[in-house]
Amino acid sequence: MAAVPSNFGPELEDDEEERKRCDHRFQQIIKKITESGWFNGFIMFVIFMNAVFMALETSAMKVTHRTMLETMDNIFLSIYSVEMVLKIYAEPKNYWFSGYNLFDFAIVMISYVQNIVTAVQDDPEGGNYFAILRVLRAMRSLRTLRTISFVRGLQVLVTALVETIRSTVVNIVLLLLLLMFLFGIMGYYFFGYPNHGDKQYWGNLGRAMLTLFAYVTVDGWTDLQEKLPSSSAIYSIIFIFLGHFIFTNVFIAVIIMNIHEATEAYQQEKMDEKEAVVAQKKEYMLQRQHEEIQKLMEKQKGSRYANFTEMAAQFEKTLRHEDYVIMEEMCADLMWIETYLTSLDHQENTLYRLQQLHYEMAQVLVQYAEERLAEDPENMS
Questions:
Q1: In degrees, to the nearest 5, what angle opens at C-alpha 24 toward C-alphas 82 and 270?
Q2: Is the pLDDT of residue 360 over 50?
Q3: Given a cut of 90, is residue 181 above it in pLDDT?
Q4: pTM of full prediction above 0.70
Q5: Quick one: pLDDT band at residue 182, thresholds 50, 70, 90?
Q6: Residues 270-299: pLDDT tens digits?
Q7: What is its main location (predicted)?
Q8: Radius of gyration of the chain from Cα atoms?
Q9: For residue 234, which of 198, 200, 187 has the smallest C-alpha distance?
Q10: Which one of 1.20.1250.10, 1.20.120.350, 1.10.443.10, 3.40.50.1220 gives the CATH number of domain 12-150?
């Protein structure tokens, strides 16, 4: 396939950017670098290696190779910082409108805060800043989540989950909490209110709701049920049916539905992008053919060719096998070609039947003439 330039329309936006920024060309180069596949692949590799070294820090190598691990962590942080600076330089405004970019920025800032706290703290394993330092070190594991900003499929899933939690799951959880509150009050009076009741699991509303949460997850609920009287079976069965079978399945169904809708929207977006690329290629092809025809017309005006046939023959030599073809033209449409060939077959069949009919008519006329001749040969002569 022939290479097609990425820009086809008028460069009005580029002209505006040039008037706004004196380093427009260099900014465009940096933007192409940050959006290139090899750059994103390199950052993905760095994230993977960073995850490997963070895993090594949890082993005995933290003591034996502490300097090497700290040096590698600083190298990774430097790479993330360079990436962040390049993206901000390429798109100083649009960078802050992306949630993934904001997440990356927060991760880098947390890493710098950790280094500052480590530098201030004389004893890294103790002192006033140890609790803060421990939290900051634990938050370094969030660097691995930066993979989401480079994988479009993961972005679709995360977006669907966030939209589900924000729009629907909150209502489901509130309704489940209301149900747990209702059954918690009932369980307190049924099993924990008397002096001989179960104070450990049903002694107050908080413990009762925590016990009911185990019923929702159906994890260890049989052990809890054994400590209750036999009359509590109806209570437990009703709550497990409502809390586990209904609410859990509704929660899963809502997530699956939203992920399905997000996936369809992602597929439609990909189709729109492909159609846009095809439209750009078509526009480029038409523009190229128009330029070729203009050149041929100019050459004809210069009397270089004797006639139009010679000019068309020369134009045919300029065509290449990798040239694009407009499939919307009727002569290049497969369905039209198939219909045309079928019509030709029917036309041949019709012509054959007409020939047979003419032959039969001629035979009838000859037979009729012979009969007339046999009846009255004198008149026929």
A1: 75
A2: yes
A3: yes
A4: no
A5: very high
A6: 888 888 888 888 888 888 877 877 776 676
A7: membrane
A8: 40
A9: 187
A10: 1.20.120.350
Structure tokens at 99: 């949630």
Q: Check residue 285 and give its pLDDT.
A: 81
